[in-house]
Amino acid sequence: MPGFRVGLVTPGSIADAAWNSGAYQGLGMIRDSLQVAVSHVEARTPAEQEEALRAYATRGYALVFGHGFEFQGAAERVSSQFPSTVFIVTSGERVAGNVSPLIFRLHEASYLAGIVAGGMTRTGIVGFIGGIELPPIRLAEEAWVAGARSVNPRVTARSTYLNTFDDVAAGREAALALLRAGADMFHHNADQAALGMFQSVRESAGGYLFGANLDQSALAPERVFGSAVIDLPRAFLAVAREVRAGSFTPRVESFGLKSGVIRYDANPALESRLSDSLRQRLRQARDSIVASDTAVAP
Questions:
Q1: Distance (Å, rounded) from C-alpha 104 to C-alpha 199?
Q2: Residue from 120, 104, 124 nearest 232 by CA
Q3: How far apart are the first and last CA of the chain?
């Protein structure tokens, strides 16, 4: 397809080492693998997000990613005026014309992270920090708690929602409050704000962490047991290949552990801390989730 171009609109900084960073890596993979022109813009408010989608479509971009659940309505409004542009909403809700969602069942990996947390906690208290209380984030929190309680039914779960994905200081203060409340295992879905959580827990006497969206073990190598990972580059490239070839059809594309796009990546540096029985429990839970998934792995 001549002049094929791909745009990406993120709701936050691509330096978050998480959700937005992974999307930007995906855009880079599209550029390098398909040798096509790409562009990125950050848009934080709903009005800015809709305008950014519209600007790409007006300029004739063939494929535009709105990176987050919050882009669904804006993509639907813009797409009705630009039927030749494919709009992909990550963590979206539904197909609407030329708008399609990529749904990432990150909660399946967060459940596995919770199993490790439930087996490793000493205080019996696990903490979760969310950015904005969107449905996919709430689902990840619930799965994290369920995983922990599957190992230790007496686990107490505490959570904080920051109403922001960007405020690192707010993430730090929320983590400090949870540490004071006795939490010693932490998970998140807070993007850049979570960097404050990593700082607080890294400096604590006995807290441990579980990353989200990317493998975040490098942020605190001696404190991160593992990460619930979305392989955004793999998913983005698969869509771009179809759109470029003209074979893409609007549909709901849902990725779980079976697909390989969703993973729980253990930190090898701390793997030996887990008992044999806990590692076995983790494997069994993963195998059970994969076996129950009737979708065809790509």
A1: 27
A2: 104
A3: 24
Q: Determine the pLDDT at residue 296.
A: 42
The HSE-up count of residue 110 (CA atoms within 13 Å, CB side) is: 26
Placement of tokens 């107490």 in the chain: 156
Reduced to 3 states (helix: H, G, I; strand: E, B; else coil), residue 101 is strand
Q: What is the pLDDT of residue 293?
A: 84
3-state SS string for 142-161: HHHHHHHHHHCCCCEEEEEE
Tokens read off for 179? 């540490």
Report the candidate in 104, 105, 98 with the shortest Cα–Cα distance to residue 53.
Answer: 98
Query: Which amino acid does the sequence have at 194?
Result: A
CA 52 to CA 9: how far, in whole Å? 7
- The Cα–Cα gap between 230 and 268 comes to 19
* pLDDT less than 50: residues of the chain: 1, 296-298
Cα 146 → chain centroid: 18
3-state secondary structure of 95: coil
As a whole number of angstroms, the distance between CA 141 and CA 76 comes to: 28
Q: Judge contact between 285 and 115, C-beta under 8 A.
A: yes
Which residues have C-beta within 8 Å of that of residue 67, sequence separation ≥ 6? 8, 9, 10, 11, 19, 20, 23, 90
Interaxial angle between packed helices 232-245 and 19-34, expressed in degrees from 0 to 180 and rounded to the nearest 10: 40
Q: Which two tokens stand for residue 285?
A: 């839970």
pLDDT digits (tens, 9 = 90+) for 85-108: 999 999 999 999 999 999 999 999
Sheet of 37-42: strands edge to edge? Answer: 37-42, 5-10, 63-66, 86-90, 99-104, 253-255
Instruction: Compute the half-sphere exposure of residue 292: CA atoms within 13 Å on the CB side of its CA.
Output: 8
Question: Running DSSP on this structure, what letter comes out for residue 182?
Answer: T
